[in-house]
Design brief:
The chain is mostly helical. The chain is built from three helices and no strands.
């Protein structure tokens, strides 16, 4: 768009009447930056909270699996003792 009096091109900021001073623009920039930082911190807290929740849930599952595997190992050890005891003619104390 051009200025009707001079014919020179008009900058876009002057076209829409947004001739704000640098002080106002810097104040808005500071406010926007502050809002952005607060939002990023809130997002980081939410992501951390979700990660910790997932980690604790998976840790519980891992603990339960470990306990079941240990109990299964004890059952297999008992079966081994009975098998070797049978091979030794019923001397289970020797197989243990």
């Amino acid at each position: 768009m051009t200025d009707p009096e001079t014919g020179a091109p008009v900058p876009p900021a002057a076209e829409d009447g947004a001739g704000e001073s640098f002080a106002v623009l810097f104040r808005r920039l500071g406010a926007d930056a502050s809002t952005l930082v607060r939002q990023e911190l809130a997002l980081a807290r939410a992501e951390l909270r979700r990660s910790v929740h997932t980690l604790l849930g998976n840790g519980g599952k891992l603990l339960a699996g470990t306990v079941l595997a240990a109990l299964g190992g004890l059952v297999l050890l008992e079966a081994l003792v009975f098998g070797v005891g049978d091979l030794l003619g019923g001397r289970y104390w020797l197989a243990a």
